[in-house]
Amino acid sequence: MSDTKEIDTQELGEKVVRVLKTIYDPEIPVDIYELGLIYDVFVNEDYETKILMTLTTPNCPVAETLPVEVEEKVKTIDMVKDCEVEITFDPPWSQDLMSEEAKLELGLL
């Protein structure tokens, strides 16, 4: 039975990442996952998720709305019972956290 749970939580984690890739920073035409704003996604056996993320700057104009959007979109996944978003600035975001794809999109490569 525990094997099924493990697969389910991993599968759910992948679904969460797919949803995160549909959320964009309004100032940059790249999704928040590829931008490197998502530091970690935790899914427990009760299908509660916790997302540890950052913002490009502490005074980011979407500081109030982006975490709420992340939480609401993740909660739309059928299996997710609850979602908590925690914002951290440690380590601070930098362009080094961006995926190759995001850097290419923004002409940084």
UniProtKB/TrEMBL annotation:
Task: Please give the SUPFAM superfamilies that the UniProt record associates with this protein.
Answer: Fe-S cluster assembly (FSCA) domain-like
- Source taxon at top rank: Bacteria
UniProt-listed InterPro entries: Fe-S_Maturation_MIP18 (IPR052339), FSCA_dom_sf (IPR034904), MIP18-like (IPR002744)
User: In this protein, which residues make up the domain named MIP18 family-like?
Assistant: 14-87
What protein does this entry describe?
MIP18 family-like domain-containing protein
Originating organism: Leeuwenhoekiella blandensis (strain CECT 7118 / CCUG 51940 / KCTC 22103 / MED217) (Flavobacterium sp. (strain MED217))
